[in-house]
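Need the bound structure for tryptophanyl-5'AMP, inputs here:
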Amino acid sequence: MARKKVFSGIQPTGNIHIGNYLGALRNWVALQEEYDCIYCVVDLHAITVPQDPAAFPGERHDAAKVLLAMGVDPGRSLLYYQSRVPQHAELAWILSTIASTGQMNRMTQFKEKADKAGSNLGLYSYPVLMAADILLFRADAVPVGEDQKQHLELTRDLAERFNARFGEEFPLPEPIIPKTGARIMSLQDPTAKMSKSDPDPASRILILDDPATIRRRVKRAVTDSETEVRFDWEKKAGVSNLMEMYSLFTGASMEQIEAEFGTGGYGRFKEAVAEEIIAGLAPFRRAYEALDDAEVDRIMEAGAEAARRRAEVYQEAVRRRVGLSA
Ligand code: TYM
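Answer from helper R.:
Posting the output first, comments after.
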């Protein structure tokens, strides 16, 4: 039997941080063992907020390089830039004709982003392009962080609506959201999620940060006025956030962390958190430095070529369903 398909994407703007890693990219890598995986650097999504055309190709290349360094394996999985596979945009258009504006108005990320960056039609229809990404290859499962849950619900909805109107074409994709790490919070404001676009670099740890930076960021992480290391998101969000990170990098349970660090004060715990993050990220930095840039370009072009070939078959099926076939 054919393996089940996984699809996921990441925006190339700004640097990839440990929230991306713990919420989604860890799963991207792990799922390659079992699934037919398709991973995409979503450059068309990224241009819904202003981009610098001179810097953008470098950022996109860098995102691809980080993914490869983390273990996305082009020998087993498809990896490419979204804009190099035009079938994404065509399917997005077709899906936009069945998406209701009422439903689009309820998308919370649009509201947050529009408040910050100003709105445009691309930003508004962003979730439809995301649905097209997922449905294009008929993905069964989608590894993402918690913030993408609403977009996944829209995707399932659009798939159902398409199937009802034009005939059974799309499977309903399931989100794969980790129990721990699905929403890593800012180190400076534990009520806001860690984000690439946060203007304060102290709010996040990047995959490629050097050890001194990581130690500084963790040391400065906002906690609370108590001293007890205890897992309690309501009362101790800053500490709980660090505990999630520690747990994910070491495999220790919250109980084990409390037993080891509970009364030792935040200083000792933070030092341990920083050292585990440094050790966990070190192999990625090494792999990143060893990667050849021309090789990365070659991998991305080969990925796009293979993705286009696969997408054409699916594209034709959709065209036929809606009456657009030659
Ligand atoms: P993006 O680029 O913002 O983030 C990439 C992945 O990282 C997850 N993530 C987090 N997880 C835990 N804690 C955090 N603080 C955190 N911040 C980000 C995101 O949930 C995501 O899984 N719209 C998507 C990109 C996209 C996509 C797709 C994803 C486009 N098409 C199709 C899946 C399937 C986005 O902006 O992710």
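Comments: The CA atoms of residues 144 and 177 lie 6 Å apart. The beta strands are 5-10, 36-41, 78-81, 141-143, 174-176.
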